[in-house]
Every structure is written in C-alpha cells, then in structure tokens.
Write a structure and sequence with these properties.
mainly alpha; globular; 14 helices
C-alpha cells in the first residue's frame, strides 16, 4: 500500500514537471531584432501605396493604443518594438486579405495582435468596414489539415508585394517551402481574367489596380518558367547568388509546374539551405469577409487547423487553390 502511494505521488510529480515544461515552451518569447519598422509597409509595388494609406487611415490611433496596452500587459516580456513588428506584419496580412477573397493566417505571433484587436468589438467592426468595406471574420477551426498550396500562394503574393526583413522571416516561419498548386497555375495560364477575378479576387474597386498588377506578374512568372523549360535552362545559372527572395519566384513557379516531386530539394539548394529543413506541413484556420452584421460567420476555409511545424499558424481563410 505504501509503495503504491509513493508511486502515485512520484507519478503526479512527474506529470506536474512535464506540464510546466510544456507551458514554459509555449510562453517562450520569440526574439526579434530590435529595430524600427519600415515606412509604408516596405511595399515594392507602387499600386499598393494608396491601399496602404487607406489601411493606415482605417486604424484609429486611440483604438490601436488600447490594443497595444492590452497586448503588452498580456506579454510582459515583449518590448514596444516586439509589438510594432507583429502589428507591421498584421497590416501586411490585412493588405493581402483585401486582395484575395480569403487568405490563411500562418503566424501565431502575428495572430496575437489580431485577436486583441477583435476584443474591442465596435472599434474592430469600424476598422474592418472602413478598410475592407465589410466585416473580416476570424473563426478558428479545430481540425488540423495541411494546406501547403495556400501557404505557397501566400508566399508568392507576399514576396512580390513586400521587402523581407529578418523579423519577417522569424514571424512567418520562412518562405518558399511549398510548391504552388499546379492546377492554379494552369488555370491562370488558360482562363480569362474575368473568370480569375471572379473566383480568387475580392470585388473592391480601390484595390483593382493592385490586383491587376499581381495577376499580370503571376502570368509573367509562368511565361518565364515556360521559357526556361523550352530552352532547358539551369535554375542555378538563372538565379544569381545575391538574388533576393523575390527573384526566386519564377523558379518557384517553374518547380511548381514541372518538378513538384523534387520541389523541396531543389528550392532548398537555390536558397543555399539544407534540403532537410524545408519540408513539413502547413496549417491555418478560417476567416472570411462578410457584408452581414452577423459576426459569428463561418470560415472561408473548411479544411484548416491551428498548428504548423515550419511556418506558424492561426486563423484566416483558404484561397481555393488546392
């Protein structure tokens, strides 16, 4: 009886230690570079600047100050710079959410700010309708289903739109780890612009020039990939060692179209990384835009979840590109 009691106590003690170790891991703060965030979201496309101004105008300063105070109170280890970078990347996400009908969110770190924004219900509704013209839902799903093609489309859009910084890579968990959907690329190659806009892009006049620019760019990347295929060019020769992430995007399209099975290995080589570090699953959760006042609306991505080993995860809508 005594031995049983001792064993039970030891078991409870071990369980207590394991639980606390897991809590410590979860609470461990991501170490960001302590530098100021760039102006205008460091957007690389001129057509994006008016939309960024619209976004900034939609975020009431008093509202965001309340969000900052709440976030920093909940995360005492964060500096103001830590908050600013997460908000910076959330603003980039909001821009993407304004371009496409639905966009997954792939960062728990960035999603922390979004969650806190929603806590101020009226202010969030005002922001959402002022910028998007409708309510942006945030509805996490409990099932965890990989969505690598959605992550790939997110990466392609993000890397064409924005300059990349060390903190960007940390917060989003790296880029170009997954191939684009071959079905999507073939559809872009053959379908009319009208059909593509109707299926993938938000109907929103202020952002139409930026949407048009990005669709043209994707078609250009497909043409570059086809040219490389026709001329049997070497990807390593085409991509200079000092090229940025954005210069790798035609290679991303090429590998997605013609070498999906070896995408991870060959993209890792182009990124000068070990091939074993670029794989893994990608997960996300659901969010969607609605003109309704019912803020309990569903997810734009039914096959989503809330965890990822290589890129972070959280809430957003799928893009229908799988």
């Amino acid at each position: 009886m005594t031995e049983l009691l001792v064993g039970l106590i030891i078991g409870i003690f071990i369980m207590f230690i394991v639980v606390n170790i897991n809590k410590t891991k979860k609470k461990r703060s991501l170490k960001l570079v302590q530098e100021a965030v760039p102006a205008e979201l460091a957007c690389r496309i001129p057509e994006g600047l008016p939309i960024i101004s619209r976004l900034e105008d939609s975020l009431n300063s008093e509202y965001m100050e309340k969000v900052k105070k709440r976030v920093l109170a909940n995360h005492p280890s964060w500096t103001e710079t830590d908050f600013n970078w997460r908000l910076f990347e959330l603003k980039r996400y909001f821009l993407l959410a304004g371009i496409l009908k639905s966009v997954p969110m792939f960062s728990d770190e960035v999603d922390e700010i979004w969650h806190e924004m929603i806590m101020f219900t009226k202010e969030y509704e005002n922001f959402s309708k002022k910028f998007f013209g409708s309510f942006l839902h945030h509805s996490p799903n409990v099932e965890r289903t990989p969505i690598p093609h959605e992550r790939a489309l997110f990466d392609w859009m993000y890397l064409h739109l924005f300059e990349i910084y060390p903190n960007s890579t940390k917060l989003w968990g790296g880029f170009l780890k997954n191939p684009l959907s071959k079905t999507l690329l073939e559809e872009v190659r053959s379908a009319s612009d009208e059909k593509l806009f109707d299926k993938y892009f938000r109907s929103f006049d202020p952002i139409k020039p930026l949407q048009t620019k990005l669709l043209e760019q994707l078609k250009n990347d497909i043409e570059k990939a086809e040219e490389m295929k026709r001329q049997n060019k070497s990807l390593r020769k085409e991509i200079k060692t000092d090229d940025t992430y954005s210069m790798l995007l035609p290679a991303m399209v090429f590998l997605s179209l013609y070498e999906q099975d070896s995408y991870t290995e060959k993209m890792s080589q182009l990124l000068n990384k070990d091939a074993g570090t670029s794989g893994g699953s990608v997960y996300a959760c659901g969010a969607a835009l609605s003109d309704s006042n019912d803020h309990s609306g569903g997810s734009g991505c039914s096959s989503s979840g809330c965890s990822s080993s290589n890129c972070g995860s959280s809430c957003g809508g799928g893009c229908g590109s799988s």
